[in-house]
Here is the input.
Amino acid sequence: MQNIYHIIFIAFIVSSSTINAFFFEKKGLILIPSVAFRDHSSQEKSPADWNLHNQGWYYEENPIQAFLMEKSLELVVRKDLDHDRVKMFTAEGEEKKDLCINGLSRSMCTKTDNEGRLKNTFTMANHEIETLRQTGSGGGKVLFQASVRNTNIQGTGEIFLCDDNGITFISDIDDTIKITEVTSSTQTLINTFSGDFKAVEGMSEIYRHWEKEYNATFAYLTASPDQLYPFLREFFDREGFPAGSAHMRHFTWLDKNFITFFMSSSYMTKKTETLQMFLQNTRNRRFVLLGDVFQKDPDIYAGAYAQYPDRIEKIFIRKYDNDVVGQERLETVFKDIPRHKWATFEKGSDLPRNIF
Here is the structure.
C-alpha cells in the first residue's frame, strides 16, 4: 500500500510551469465563511467598532494534474471517485490578481497572495454593521460580494459576528461530526474523494438544539484543506448543521502529499492559533469545545483550558465506547481539568441537551 501512495503523489512532481497555459480551463472563486470581533485596539470599555476578516481562494483548474490524480486515486478509491473534488484539489491558485469587495457600505480592492488566497482584515463602525446585519446564527452575520476585476467571476461571502458576550461552540469536523477515519490512510482517501460525506449519527440534531437553546454561534475547525470547502458546505446544508465560520488550512504542492498534510503538526498550530483568536478577541464570551480522540484535539483543548479555565465551559471528545486506550489517554491529557468539565461521546445522542 505504501507504494500506491508513492505513485499517487509522485505524479505531482510535474510543475505547473511546465504545462502550457492552453491546458488550463475553468477559473473560480471560493469564499469561505469567516468571523468578526469587536475592535479592542483602544481601552474603551465597550468598543463600538468591529474587525472583520474575510477569506477565499481564486483558482484555475489544471486538467493535467486532475487527470494524473484521478488515475492514481483509482488504485485506492475503486468506485464513486468524485471528479469535482479532484478538480478542485488539483487546481492552481491565481496569484497577485485584483479582487474587489462590495456590499459593506463601501468598496475596496485587494490582491490575492502568492497562493491565490484572499485574506483581509478591515474595520467597520457598529452603526454600519447594524444596517447590514442579518439575523440568525447567534449574533447574526453580514454578507459581502467579491469579484475578480475584468472578469465575470464573483461570489457572495459570509462574515459571522462574534460579540464579547454569548456562547460559541467550536467544533472539529473530521471524525467529530463527519466520518473520515483519519487513523487509516486508505479510508481517509476513500472518505475524502468518493461518495457523499457521511455524518456522525445525531450530531446535526444536537448542534441545532444547542444553537436554539443558547442562541449560540458555531465555528468549525478542520485539518482538511480549504479547497474542499464547497463540498463540506454541501454536507453542512444537507445534514442541517448550524451555519458558522470555517477555519481550514490550504494545501499546495509544496506539501509532501495529502496524507502527510492531513496529519502534519501544522494542523495543531492552525487549530491553536484559531482558538487563541477567538479567546483573545472576545472578553466575556464562553466556549464549548468539541473534538475527537483520533488526532490531537485533546492536547490542543487542554492547552487552551490551561490559559482560559473560566472561559471554557465544557470539552466533549468523541471516541468509541470500547476504546480503553483512548480513555486512558484522555485521563492523562486532562489530568489538570476538573472531571465535570469534560466528557466523551460516540454519537450525538450521547451528548447532554442542557450544558449550563
Summary: The chain is about 30% helix and 25% strand.
